[in-house]
Amino acid sequence: MTDSKTTDVLIIGAGAAGLSAAVAAHDSGAKVTVIEKGAKLGGTAAISGGIVWVPSNPNMQKKGISDSREDALAYFRSLDHGEMNDDSLEAFVDEGANALQFLTERGALDLQLLEGYPDYYLDNPGAKADGGRALDNALFDFTSLGDWSDKVYNGGEIVRMMLLETPLGGGSGIVDPDEMKRRVEGDLRGWGQALIGRLLKACLDRDIEVLLETSARKLALQDGRVVGATVTCGGAETTISARRGVVLATGGFEWDEELKTTFLRGPLTSPASPPTNTGDGLKMALTVGAGLGNMTSAWWIPTLSESGARWPDNGAPEKDAQRSVPVLIERTLPHSLMVNGQGKRFCNEATNYSALAGAFHSFDPATYGYNNLPAYLIVDSQYRGRYPIASVMPGDPSPDWIVEAPDLAGLAVAIGVDTAQLEATVSRFNTHAENVNDPDFGRGVSAYDRFYGDRSRDGAAATLGKVEVGSFFAVRIDLGALGTNGGPRTNGMAQVLNVYGDVIPGFYGAGNVISNPTGSVYAGAGGTLGPALTFGYIAGQSAARSEAH
Ligand SMILES: Cc1cc2nc3c(=O)[nH]c(=O)nc-3n(C[C@H](O)[C@H](O)[C@H](O)COP(=O)(O)OP(=O)(O)OC[C@H]3O[C@@H](n4cnc5c(N)ncnc54)[C@H](O)[C@@H]3O)c2cc1C
Fold first, then answer.
1. Separation of 518 CA from ligand 1 center, angstroms?
2. How far apart are CA 304 and CA 131, in angstroms?
3. Distance between CA 449 and CA 350 in Å, rounded?
């Protein structure tokens, strides 16, 4: 054991929630130490789209887009299956805009409206069909980070666009070559890298201590109060004492097999997040008696896994982990459908990814299994000629993970699906596509489905198109997540509660490690980072303003 150190507020985990907490705690007068187990920081947030969803946010207010506390609460409550608690839900709705305002004024955020980005449950009260609540990060100059510019985890890819410039955000995906040159020379980055870059810059500007490759192992308790943590750094163990509080911000547990099978409602085999999210925070919280909430849930998303795609090592126990990527537009663009192992469609492929997991988790009592896992994305040559599948662009040869066959019968054999059933399914789908009406699953009815489709086509044709021109292609689809979202329960002050609902003194939490304030509901694009930044802000302030022990 090496010498211990003392700080006011110890923040465990340097993702979106942790860095937001660090700025808030510092500006509330505390000495702050942030520890991060990776050799690079930023966690899932740094490789994310970086979109932030907050109701009545400052950008909406400036633009005169109407929104209200009542609308936001009505929206969430109409989606609640009993997992939300009023205190933390209302704290998110009431403090979200303040958190963004605070972080923006202090140079830790620079967000812009993602024009027209619809909420995910448009038939529910309080939903915004025309966008406003989802915000994009302005490009951030990484040269301003100096020696820290290569300390932000990027999963091996540098993003030089804002999300609103890409097809996902309604843009063309094309940047003028001179402008791109300027971005490369100036090391300008977008998406989650911009989000984390700015938050980190704000921490460095404040001389906040950020310790990399420093992993919390155990919380220190004194008379029932959390007073610090035992951490390992370079193989040596040390303790960090925290006079005012410890903020847990270690992300989810989607990379821990035992925690997943113990708690989640169904399989989560292929997470889209980096493998550093191993549930360390949840385990530490359990040892001090934290009560839990939302444990069956995650930010679900269908994923595909390109063979050979690996996460660059960042100090996680899984050194050579398979990288899986979200399947978003591939299942919403025309000339595509999804089938299960029986060759049958089982959902509106274009619906929002988090809710869609319910269809993947459908349990068949007859087979005692999940009949829709794995599933297969089926596309034809019209699709391949126009649209991408993950990193494979139109015109690229098909890699081994895209199965190709000249006809549907050959494709069915290649993926082990009944030939007659697959042909019947595709034939029925093609009739629906021709009629631009999907009576089986209603694909294309919602504005959401069409937003993620081909917006050069009108109405439901934005997402419905026949799968009829050979060759045909299939890609295996598994169920993953952007992170889990259950964990220790908190109140609206981000204080962790014990199993009896009482505050555990000195202990705070934010982000995917806690029981998410919006329950299992992914409200709209940015629906995880909005609560993470807000609860980081609340946790940092609460901890800094608490009485020192
Ligand atoms: C491909 C992809 C795209 C996404 N896009 C969006 C989007 O556009 N909008 C949105 O809202 N959400 C998005 N998400 C989800 C979002 O990124 C996460 O929900 C969010 O980053 C969670 O933030 P966090 O701070 O809780 O955790 P993280 O960002 O994962 O950070 C947790 C940090 O804690 C560290 N840590 C873990 N254990 C320890 C320990 N024992 N000691 C010290 N440090 C530790 C980790 O290394 C990590 O750096 C996306 C996710 C993925 C995978």
1. 17
2. 28
3. 5
Buried b / exposed e along 121-142 (16+ C-beta atoms within 10 A): bbebebbbeebbbbbbbebbbb
Q: Is 274 in the pocket of ligand 1 (CB under 6 A)?
A: no
| Token pair belonging to 157 | 């890819």
Closest residue to atom 10 of ligand 1, CA basis? 526
Sorted by where each starts, the structural domains of the chain and their CATH numbers stand as 5-216+485-545 (3.50.50.60), 328-481 (3.90.700.10)
pTM over 0.90: yes
Report the candidate in 160, 156, 191 with the shortest Cα–Cα distance to residue 310.
156
For 209-260, what is each residue's pLDDT tens digit?
999 999 999 999 999 999 999 999 988 999 999 999 999 999 999 999 999 9
As a whole number of angstroms, the longest Cα–Cα distance in the chain is 72
Please work out whether the CB of residue 326 comes within 6 Å of at least one atom of ligand 1.
Answer: yes
Q: Which of 167, 162, 158 is nearest to 185 (CA)?
A: 158
Tell me if 252 sits within 8 A of 18, measured CB to CB. Answer: no
Ligand 1 atom nearest residue 528's Cα: 11
136 lines ligand 1 (CB under 6 A): no
User: In whole angstroms, what separates CA 77 from the centre of its chain?
Assistant: 22
Ligand 1 proximity of 539 Cβ (cutoff 6 Å): no
The answer to whether the CB of 14 is under 6 A from ligand 1 is yes
Give the model confidence (pLDDT) of 188-218 as tens digits. 999 999 999 999 999 999 999 999 999 999 9
